[in-house]
Amino acid sequence: MTREETEKTLQALAEGVRTWRRAPILHCPHEEGLEYEDVFFPSEDGIPLEGWFIPRSGSDEMIIANHPRWFSRAGLPSHLEPWKSLGGSAGNDFEVNFVPDYKILHDAGYNVLAYDLRNFGHSSSANGGLFTAGRCESRDVIGPLDYVRSRSDTREMTIGLFSRCLGCNATMFAMTRRPGVFDGVRCMVSPQPLSSGVALGRALERFGVPASYMEDLNDRVRLQTSFALDQFSPVPWAKSLMIPTFLYQVRDDLYTRPDDIQAMFDNIPIANKKLHWIEGTTRRWDGYTYFQREPEQMLHWFARFMA
Known about the structure:
Layout (H helix, E strand, L loop, with lengths): L2 H16 L18 E6 L5 E7 L6 E5 L9 E2 L7 H4 L8 E2 L1 H9 L3 E5 L22 H13 L7 E5 L3 H12 L7 E7 L4 H12 L6 H12 L19 E6 L7 H10 L5 E6 L5 H5 L1 H4 L2 H11 L1
Parallel strand pairs: 3-6, 3-7, 7-8, 8-9, 9-10
Antiparallel strand pairs: 1-2, 2-6, 4-5
């Protein structure tokens, strides 16, 4: 790779941290025979968030679900351009539809609230459209908790969290900032949180850029976002996790390294925690669809702590 090509790659990666194309919402709960309510509520700082409330008759248990970066509550149309180009080079060129997840949770006896984080799906723009790997997005994690506790038909429900990737990062940072908000939340299931610095280091490998350029890339990211890459790592935030937490991850995921999620897991300071490795694939998207293929472990975790 020439110096000019390296410069273009570094700048494109840095700019890609800040901005992205929103994913359209191409699926809805009715496709799985689920009745639902379109809902909206404010984030902690007042940003309007959009979501679906999927009631389960006779249940007093609620799962609040969010989503990874690039995605929406409905998933990601990564079989279509331009979203296909986001992960296609690493084999992630197939659609991810999250609505079957909500069907599984509903059939297991849970009410479900699924929502879009700021700057994603139908939720409002905020912070100039800036992506912060969970820092500003942590305010959105608090919004649905306040909403569930404010509705007369849900305020007494037991709450669990299904926090995916960016959603898990945001949840951990929210717990770091405002731990009291999570009093009474019973547990969390979280696929594939990751550190932006690790993901960008793997990107340099895929593009053939020497690791010696990481410092240069870090400087460029800071110029784009005002944050250094170490400020985007959830590894230290995991020390604030005080609810039973089940993490799972594609072990050979081309977007990260096993030691990143292992470090998060090791930092969780409670005994009720679990880490499951998904084997036999390098595709990150296989981690996002794992719940649909093999939900038993995660459902058992919810059942154990939500009862």
